[in-house]
Amino acid sequence: MLKRRTAALLLLASLVLNSFPAFAQQPTPTPAPQAPAPGQQQPALDPNDPVAKIIDEGMNRSQVMQTLSYLSDVIGPRLTGSPGMKRANEWTRDQLTKWGLQNAKVEPWGTFGRGWALKRFSAEVVEPQAIPLIAYPKAWSPATTGPVVADVVYVDAKDEAEMRAKYAGKLKGAIVLTGAMREDIKAHFDPQGTRLNEKQLLDLANAPDPALRPQRRGGFPQQSPEQRAAAAFNAAKQQFYLSEGAALLVDPGRGDGGTVFVSAAAVPQAPAPPGAPAFGPGAPRRFSAYDKDAPKFLPQIVMASEQYNRLVRMIQAGEKVRMAVNLDAQYLDQDPLGYNTIAEIPGSDPQLKDEIVMLGGHMDSWHAGTGATDNGAGVSVAMEAVRIIQTLGLKPRRTIRIGLWSGEEQGLLGSRGYVKQHFGEIVAPTPQPTPPGAGEGRPQAAPTPTPQGRLVTKPDYEKFSGYFNLDNGTGKIRGVYMQGNAGVWPIFRQWLAPFSQMGAQTLSMSNTGGTDHLAFDAVGLPGFQFIQDEIEYDTRTHHSNQDVFDRIQGDDMKQAATIMAAFVYQTAQRDEKLPRKPAPPR
User: Fold this and answer.
1) For a FRET experiment, which of 50, 133, 272, 308 has its CA 20 to 30 Å from that of 405?
2) Residue 203 located in a structural domain
3) Which of 423, 500, 410 is nearest to 460 (CA)?
4) How far is CA 64 from CA 72, 319, 387, 468, in A?
5) Least confident residue range of 4-13, 138-147, 165-174, 342-351
6) Three-class SS string for 432-471?
7) Which are the contacts of 409, defined by CB distance < 8 A and separation ≥ 6?
8) Same domain, yes or no: 294 and 318
9) Is residue 43 part of a domain?
10) Residue ranges making up the domain that contains 25
């Protein structure tokens, strides 16, 4: 089975490589060693081999958990623009400097918006009985006007007309339960924590090249009539609660068993007019809660789903429920910029030292937990990878640069800003001027189709070799998403060989979304995310109050940092830069 899969992937790589001249120009790599068959031991590395030294340091003298504990336990949540994010930027800069990296700095990537700091929060039911509540404010929520003790109103309406008929004049000063009860809370008969099994890994290995799949036509997806109606009703509810003078909005939490998923406060949005797109060019501007000029919106919290359901049932039974809430938060407008932490191990080869290999992960997090799995894990692994290389005294030929990003949770803002500043960007076409005589009844030539955008590069674009990212939680590395880049297949196969006994031997041509490697891939630079075991990422920790240090798997973190260090170091040592996919048009 393994041999047939390997042969098929080699054939696919060969076909794709021969299809593109850019790939054909790459020198033939050293023949890749075959991954050992099940039960077969991987041949021992020479102890003087740098990879063997990396494995020894990474697995036997790791500091990755100490780094993560300080980042998550001591500094805590790191919302972009918050005091926690600022402290994390400065601490990681200083720690990387302490380890001997050079040019360590906190570097602005562009304008973000206003920061937010939570000063104090409490929530409980006070009538008809005392009920302590599991609840969290949404990020960038306004503060309440001091402690609020108010009636709880459950808004149960199918549409705007019913809402106004039932609740107009009844919400002033009230605490509003905004959504329906959750009916999907069931017992868990399957484990919440999982690892990738052989079938899942095989499916990843057999995934087709994304370039061979049918491509969706350009433009933004259109909303269905039902989606438009739901969006319009949601916008109407937000405006209605505001105009009625409600004191606080409460949403039911996603998750159960005490796990609460929390993100940003909702802002009233203008619905798209009939015929206009909901997103993209021609759509009404969409505001985020961190926009300083966002429309006014109400304080908002999320409550554990079981407790939310209980309050709804109590109200439906005719009980009068009152809550006490104190949400004290502060907007921070002094500095609208967002920042990344950057540091380097300088290259040693006179001909290659100006070329760049990068690694990293995003340091910003949500605020209900401490950002341990999302993505203190990736940050700590990347920091440990450069610590390993630096501690061993290895002298990479190319410069190794670590980037710890902010603004990822708001749309990969930090990494995209960095790529734009240092390497390049896709620039939308400039609108063509109206030709002379247009509109005067003269026949006009058919307009020339214009491209969606053009790549505009900076000088360092051609000096860039590759970027490696970690951002799928605490799970060990099982391989690499190659992002449709067939040229790296034989290289990565060789580099994974020493780690097959650690469970890392899968290469997938598929893409993976939502992580900072996409900022590099978007402009045609080699950017990769490692395949990781799921553990509890989607079921329990991702954006939740359970995203904390105690959900981290220490042995997995050591393995991941060791593999990342080996990949980054070997990228820095190659005679040539990593192969690239065809770049966007320039």
Assistant:
1) 50
2) no
3) 423
4) 12, 52, 9, 17
5) 4-13
6) CCCCCCCCCCCCCCCCCCCCCCEEEECHHHHHEEEEEECC
7) 80, 263, 362, 364, 365, 366
8) yes
9) no
10) 2-33+67-112+336-428+450-573
